[in-house]
Amino acid sequence: MGSSPYTVAAIVAVTLVTVVIGAYGLRMARTTSDFLVASRAISPTWNAAAIGGEYLSAASFLGVAGLVLKHGVDVLWYPVGFASGYLALLLFVAAPLRRSGAFTLPDFCEVRLRSRRLRKLATAFVLFIGWLYLVPQLQGAGLTLATVTGSPYALGALLVGGVVTANVALGGMRAITFVQAFQYWLKLTALAVPVIFLALHWQATDRPPVTPVGGTTFPRATTVVVERPATLTFPDGATLEVGHGERLEFAVGTPVPRVSGVDAEFGGDWLLPGDRHREDGGLFGTYSLILATFLGTMGLPHVLVRFYTNPDGAAARRTTLVVLALVGLFYLFPTLYGVLGRIYTPHLLMTGETDAVVLLLPGAALGSGLLGQLLGALVAAGAFAAFLSTSSGLLTSVAGVLSTDVFGRGGMAQPGSVRGFRISAVLAGAVPTLLALNVFGLDVSQVVGMAFAVAASTFCPLLVLGIWWRGLTDVGAAAGIVAGGGASVLAVLVTVAGPPMAPWPATLIGQPAAWTVPLSFLVMLVGSALTRRRVPADVGTTMLRLHAPEPLRPEPDRPRTAPAAGVRTAGTVKA
Amino acid sequence: MATKRAQPPTRTRVVLGELRQRRSAGERLAGDRVELSEPSGVGDALVRGLVRAQLVLALRLTLVVAVGLGGLPLLFVVAPAAGTARVFGVNVPWLLLGLVAYPFLVAVGWAYVHLAERNEQQFTAVVRRPER
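Output (structure tokens, whole complex):
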């Protein structure tokens, strides 16, 4: 796809609207509490759309369709897992967490276990997970801008990093809520509208089969320029060695050859579950992925912050249910892009750059006329909305933790200042931007999956045991976080920077959740049982706070007036 | 049920720092309510009961999802025929994972919200009128 003027205009428009809504929110943000938790005056529907907008990242918008194009039905566990994470959040965390009054994960440690040291440990993991998740977002932005406009890679990463940092630093969270809600609907539209046209086109052209009998074929004459030496294998068994710079012409209806070094499914296997060719470990890998996504969502730093904006526990539950529905609705579409990409953009199977399928499909199927260009611009705008919204949410929470726990003195009693939050936002944005500019070749979906695995191995056990088990102690919790978190972080580092491994250890390291999550739970349980004397004396009171419905709680609220400046960031609203 | 959930619940102020100091004074409320925060009293037993009821509910629904959705990869391995069957011209795994999974998750979530609120209403009713 060449650079279309509409695409550039659409990306500029999305970025501008994000900045303008941010500025509009800035004028409305008057007090510190407005700034940081949007005064809890946001309706569940707005809040749910904002949560959805924040959650659907580059991995959801681009990565899922690319994986489906490559691997078929097996990778549908990614979107199902991403959505089911909100069910786990609803069942085990939503209402009690809101009632705890904790604003961030470190806050929860202090509310529940009264431990400053555990708070510090949690802070370190929030920063690690937040930055681990931010880097691929910025990289995705760089690659998208390079794909659709031909700009240098650094421009996209710098653009998104800069816009998001400025927006978070200047607008605070109320602005972000409006921006995020807008971006959810933009992302949904950007996938849903083109898919209608694509389906009509497919219907009108006698419904070409998704998996033709002779293997996937080129829908039109295609010229491939070889960039690195490879072996092509054709469905009839013939092989061809190609070298750098060679031009290959494929006529309409020619089967797409398999390229050595590109891991993708060809032929009918794509349609069926449980492929035997993949190196990443079949059933074990699938269950590990399900566990990571199901339990990891609740531990992502940008997800939890949002729950504080609900007025009470019951509203937190209803908001989560709406989020589950909104996210599920969204995930119906990337699958269709992957399937249609099989028909219209099979050349991506040769290059391996399947993440681009969402961006390229409208142009490839509908031609380079006005309709194809406009729809291409729409999906590019949606992709940018995905980068901007997820990065904003992550940055807000990382900056919040930085300003309270690293620059502030991290206690429940110190007021957080707006200025401190702004400085933290700049720092929180600068680190991943610099990393994104200097680290290449990380696969978006893989890194995002790693972030889920680390979150599932650290904060999931902390939250679940903290909320439901009186016996948890600070020592036990810290031991569990160190064991599960340490193991999964190590797995991340080995996967990203380590040497290639044999299939079985590669699966254990590449999809670590199936062993690191049970390890973390186990260490927390045993560690707490061994240090039973350290159970906080007020655990009964805390459990009452977490689980009793609001009408039964002591001290009815004052009439709602704007709280004075100097209100705590961390969930303590003092008179 | 003594309370109507349709009415917005009374807002409560969250005071973490002063919680322990104020609790003894602030907790005494009018009427024949059960004192919830006294350790090893009736109130404590009630809170434990509520926590257990909510946890059992959450675990049961997790089991529903674990069997209904988590059983699928195993099913496709054990019974490959299930993976090749077609409904409306679409392979069953695609239909289940691409479409049916999401309404299923929302339905389980809806059931949880409904049942969890019912548990809380029962708890509230018992606390407000312990002798009835």
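Chain B has a mean pLDDT of 75.
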